[in-house]
Design a protein that fits this description.
There is one protein chain. By secondary structure, the protein is mainly α. Helix content is 72%, strand content 0%. Helix 2 packs across helix 13. It is globular, with a radius of gyration of 22 Å.
């Protein structure tokens, strides 16, 4: 309880406190500014761009991560050395640090020496010769791709745990009754996966709205702000001596994520009860 208070409760309360001040993060003095910082968050056009980037990342990444995670779980569920090995390979990127992720991004996407540039010299693969992280129209897609590579295995693990709770007798009985693979999935497997889907959807959405590290190590919000998220925007504000403004940005994001999470949980819990 003491540790939780020290690393979770106190930082939240400190952020809430400083969001109503003009503290620059370095001086020992500050003044209270009321809701000025909060109002500034909504009127700053750069925050609007970061909000759109964050929403785009959260929606596209969530849809793809959940779809891929479910497909992988259905494919790799069950015994067998090959399946076990593939599950391990897919889960391993979770352990990759931000530094290694940035290094991999350079190795793969560097327009001069990257692996994709080298592969583009093969016949029919010339389209791979792109500035994947430096082109504003490609950078967000590239960041989402790397985030999927790192976190789809986590989604797969939760769905695998859910699949282990599906009674085999039900599936066997449905098979004997002539139900095909799709009908067994739609009427038995998917409804019983509702708790796993709830966890995955909520966690993926929250992770999408709070995205920071994969953007920081790959593009630092560039090019031209094309990948800047709300969290990276708040970090930039703090680094330029606007700590109170940065805290207000984080406060608005936290409240927004809280609202989205509660709405999702209510909707998904109702779906679980109907399943």
């Amino acid at each position: 309880m003491v540790l939780f208070t020290a690393v979770v409760v106190l930082p939240i309360l400190a952020n809430l406190f400083f969001s109503f001040t003009d503290w620059n993060g370095f001086s020992s003095t500050f003044d209270f500014v009321g809701f000025d910082n909060v109002l500034r968050v909504f009127s700053d056009p750069e925050n609007g761009r970061a909000a759109r980037n964050t929403l785009l990342f959260a929606v596209v990444n969530s849809v793809l991560q959940l779809s891929l995670g479910l497909a992988l779980a259905l494919t790799l569920y069950g015994p067998g050395k090959l399946r076990s090995t593939l599950r391990l390979v897919i889960v391993l990127p979770i352990a990759v640090s931000g530094v290694v992720l940035g290094f991999l991004g350079t190795v793969i996407f560097d327009p001069r020496t990257g692996l994709l540039t080298a592969a583009s010299k093969a016949p029919g693969l010339g389209w791979l010769a792109q500035n994947w992280l430096g082109d504003p129209s490609l950078a967000m897609g590239t960041v989402i791709f790397m985030n999927l590579w790192q976190w789809t295995g986590f989604t797969m693990l939760i769905f695998l745990a859910g699949l282990s709770m599906v009674p085999a007798e039900l599936l066997e009985a449905a098979t004997i009754d002539g139900a095909g693979a799709w009908r067994r999935f739609a009427h038995i497997t998917w409804p019983l996966l509702a708790p796993s889907a709830t966890i995955n959807i909520v966690l993926t959405a929250i992770g999408g709205f709070k995205v920071f590290d994969v953007i920081y190590v790959l593009t630092k919000g560039g090019p031209g702000g094309a990948t800047e998220s709300i969290v990276s925007r708040a970090a930039t504000q703090g680094s330029f001596g606007q700590f109170g403004y940065s805290a207000a940005t984080n406060l608005v994001l936290t409240l927004g994520v809280l609202v989205v999470s509660v709405v999702l949980l209510v909707i998904l819990r109702r779906r679980e009860l109907r399943a």
